[in-house]
Amino acid sequence: MFRRMLISALLLMGAAILYGCSATQTVSVNGDTTFRERGLLFTSGSVQTAARVPGAGLTSTRTSANGLSKRTVIRIGQDFEAEGLTLSPVLANSLPGWRTERHGDALAAFQQSCKVLTQRSPDDAASVSALGGQVRDWQGVCARAAALDVNDHNRARAFFEEQFNAFEVRGEGTFTGYYEAEINASRTRSRAYSWPLYQRPPELVNGQEYFTRAEIESGALRNRGLELLYVDNPVDVFMLQIQGSGVVKLDDGTTTRVGYAANNAHPFISLRDELERRGYDKAEYGASIQSYTRWLKERPRIAMDVMNTNPRFIFFQENLNDGAIGAQGIQLTGERSLAVDLDFMPLHVPLWLETHATAPNGSSRTIRRMMVAQDTGSAINGAVRGDFFWGSGAGALAMAGRMKSPGVYTMLLPKSIASELSSNSLAMRLPTR
């Protein structure tokens, strides 16, 4: 299970012998910028690299100019490498904001993951990352979670403290926001509703490249009966594909939902990056989803040209649930579900997130709360990277559209996985100095 971890450990041990005296400011995490360049200051004994690790029971404090100021947490073990992550065992109840959190709200989101896990074979891998263990590692925890009242926040907090071990994922990453989009559509094609939302083609094979966006928009799937709905604007179709799910207001006055069904296995190219590459003035089209959506709708020819440079295309299915659906059929919870990179982070894992978001009035909202890894996306890449699900409606759009913030997270693993991780990771402990 931890074969890749052992390989990483051996490589790391070799690197430590060769470069054991490297200065802290030359080591980078999650990018090419160094700690000093990112404006991070460290107190004596604090840690962010393999070169300097505090002993068990010591408190690590970090001051940062980007909003993660005066962050203090109690570390109860030495840092180690596992599945491409540098993990630091910490005391969960020492995490900033832990004692005042509404843990019952996070428990309700976790119970949604448990509904999926309890239906799977105990011998299955719980997720892509080996850190997720097997389904059996979660089923006992889920049984205990199901017996709890989500309105009893103190008991919910005790549940997370008793059933999980906390591991901070070292490094600072980026956290963006997404939401359940709202679009106008019809079940029949007309002049007002002429842009199709496609179902998954039967011949599409997961992981194999299919028609590109430009080819599909040029008619590659036309007249095959794959149209699920017809939308009133192509920009809304594009934005729906980025968000992955949406509420649909139909022209007959009814409402339905659509959710992700498949993709064409092509890489994702950022629309905003393409606009910048073409020399368009960012001050004109803006940085928020709302502003550049409006800008594109006012320039339909430019919009189609720019959107077609992103070859990735998403297919949908009608969602009869009362909410957006994430990876593996998990129903998402607004302000509690997080989309992650599944190459690093397992699905279903509770995560303590520390970041911030910008409100419509320009004020900064501190986020210190329990999330659950319940979704993923093609633009979510990196060891410390997440997409915060804000829910649906105008308020969710207002927050999601402006969010791009630095942050850190700590994952909670069931004790059975944590125990196996500990017993297999002695050779992967990072060197101290």
SSE blueprint:
Blueprint: H1 3-19, E1 40-42, E2 59-64, E3 71-74, E4 80-82, E5 85-90, H2 103-117, H3 135-146, H4 153-163, E6 164-169, E7 173-186, E8 195-198, H5 213-220, E9 227-231, H6 234-243, E10 245-250, E11 255-263, H7 271-277, H8 282-285, H9 289-297, H10 300-307, E12 314-319, E13 337-340, E14 350-358, E15 364-375, E16 385-392, H11 394-400, E17 404-414, H12 415-424
Helix pairs in contact: 2-3, 2-4
CA radius of gyration is 23 Å
Helical content stands at 25-40%
Query: Average pLDDT, to the nearest integer?
Result: 82
**DSSP, total strands:** 17
Descriptive overview:
27% of the residues lie in helices and 27% in strands. The chain has helices at 3-19, 103-117, 135-146, 153-163, 213-220, 234-243, 271-277, 282-285, 289-297, 300-307, 394-400, 415-424, and strands spanning 40-42, 59-64, 71-74, 80-82, 85-90, 164-169, 173-186, 195-198, 227-231, 245-250, 255-263, 314-319, 337-340, 350-358, 364-375, 385-392, 404-414. Helix 2 (103-117) crosses helix 3 (135-146). 42% of the residues are buried. Residues 1-67 have low confidence and may be disordered. The radius of gyration is 23 Å and the shape is globular. It has 433 residues and is of the alpha+beta class. The protein contains twelve helices and 17 strands. It has a six-stranded mixed beta barrel, surrounded by five helices. It has three domains: 78-170 and 413-421, Barwin-like endoglucanases (Beta Barrel), CATH 2.40.40.10; 182-317, Ribosomal Protein L25, Chain P, CATH 2.40.240; 325-344 and 354-405, RlpA-like domain (Barwin-like endoglucanases), CATH 2.40.40.10.
